[in-house]
Fold:
Amino acid sequence: MTSLMVRPDAARELQDQQVREEIHALFRSRSGRAARYGSHVADLWQAAAECVLGGKLLRPRLLLDALDALRSTGARSNAVQTSAVRIAAAVEMLHYAFLLHDDVIDGDLWRRGRPNLIGTLLSQHGKGNPLPSDRGALTQDRRRLHWARSGAILMGDLLLSEVHQVFAREHLPERIRLRLLDLLDHTITESIAGEHLDVALSDGMITPEFDSVLTMTRLKTASYTFELPLRAAAILAGSTPRTEEVLGDVGTLLGSAFQLQDDLLSTFGEAGDHGKDAYSDLREGKETVIIAHARRTSAWPEVQPHFGNPQLSTADAVVVRHLLGECGAEEFVRSLIADQLTAAHVLATSAESGLPAGVRSFLTTLTAMVEGRRS
Structure:
């Protein structure tokens, strides 16, 4: 995807390295402590450490870049910067915990074009058999699949616990720590609510009305991908609650646009660009805004028989994608993304926001980078 890079390359590389070192240190520490419970527990931590490598560090970058912008006119503290790097690393661990649980819910074996933790565990204990390219090939090996998925659930739980430990134990003034912990609780609650709504919609437990799908889109991704890093930066910078609120609102708008872009890429993009099965959302019956719009058009009777069919052929998927484009679903979602980005820009740059000029400039650049995302 287009890198959401605001800082110069050299500063970015140093900052990324600091975050990665914190993540590696956490996994090394946990792997060592896990050994007392047996090699199988230590091996789980080691496998997870290998899978978490290679992430884009989007959320840590947002947090640290926003903090840099917020402190551009004020005194800088090395202690705050050190704490911010650790909090940023914990935010990345939160992201990974969510991905682990999400992969179990969706039954996925791959992420970023390579085996995820479930796929890695299956490969390591596959008795010489290669990892299947699809879920159906594993239906005859239910016990091994259940074991691998259970490992992902348990590792996700462990990482959620570790994230709370980092936030709670960081050497910060109590009022700052409490604000960060409240923010963490808010983020986890909203993200889980969004995931629960996503599953309920996909499994037909809730009527897929347009407003419900749009709410799910906001909750599932915007809260922890953009709102959390931006609000955490404001808290660490000692900003006023008003500044935190504005940054959170901008983050919600940008995060919603970001998720809508994901939906477009998953349906109309190329697998080589985003590392996913090009038609996985259609095969899984994902209730996206694209589908919500299509349901309201005359094209839906032709789309419906194929939607949610795990055996959807590539030829039929191409036809469905064409129908979704012809009925205006693609154009509608692109206009919705544009509306979200425009609203974010207006909020970030308005005089009423009370944001310093450096922060307004940062948010303007960030909005343009989200708008220019292509993969």
The longest strand covers residues 110-111.
